[in-house]
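Form 7-S
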Amino acid sequence: MHARVQMTMKILAIDIGAGTKDILLFDDSKEAIENCVKLVLPAPSQVYADEVIRATALAKDIFVNGDVIGGGAFASSLKRHVKRGLRATMTERAAYTVRNTLDQVRELGIEVAADEEPSAEFQGQTMTIKEINLTELGGFLAQYGEPLEDIDIVAVAVQDHGVSPSEISNRRYRIENMRKTLESNPKPEALAFLESEIPPHYLRMQSVVRATKNQLPHTEILLMDTSPDAILGCLKDETSEKARNVLAINVGNGHTMAALISDGTITGIMEHHTRYMNHKKIRRLLIDFANGSLTDEEVFSDNGHGLFYLKEPQGFQNIDAIVATGPNRNILQKIGLPVHLAAPAGDVMMSGPIGLVEAAKARISLKEKRHISEI
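Output:
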């Protein structure tokens, strides 16, 4: 019997949103992607928020060290803790979880400490925050014959506005950085960063790289924002793959992003905050965006991030498919438009991870790193 060499690729894709942390262990040696390991867990921000709430109920002071993570529910719980007259102290690195400058953190009543550990006299609760714990995840998966030691790529998505210059709104800064990136390469995967490409102003992404390298030092790492990775995941739905002109929408807990895509190329992006959406407004925004009659200033003045076009928009009447994902996607079922709820690989919760897998396959060459097995 002759030996046949089979090349396989394994990608650990982790999408960390405001509500959930969605994980896909992609292994192309499986007969179908549905056979790959999938997990949907509470987001770290939610887990740590619950811990703060319990400390508040017990009237305990809090000392927080660790990484930069998504603020969300965790940051809100810390602010409520301080308003109750209790102390909350964070190390300098961890404090960027709450705000982009340490002075802004202090203005909220949260103390900032230079030391990584509390003083010997501290009687409260110490919390170490992290979004990436591959040791814990690897221990769990190893019980099912899925070790992480042979992972080729770790691909992670987090929402990161970046630390904007003081004279620029962080909303404008976010959308402008996306525009600049896509002007040179309008493919969705261009919004993914290899570890060496991450700009220094993306503190949360930098924190993810540090945590990953500490645990899997020889693994390739890719980072992406949670909004565009979900859009990219939408494009792997069968309905999207059959269409030329697509309006893809991610209605997240925090942000709603819409992208106009023609033949796999982005022609425009619009992003707003989901909390300002209702079915009437989002219908109008989507139609006007596709028609080219919606302006950046109109979206920004309505507390959104803004929009940009890379070329003349297709026009709403020329859209072949409207596909949507995200935890608040059900709002789109009330707008009277033919919206298809995307379910790449049969699972709406995997839109983000599958987007990460596609970005990783497009951005990283593993010709010399793939595992070789003999059959």
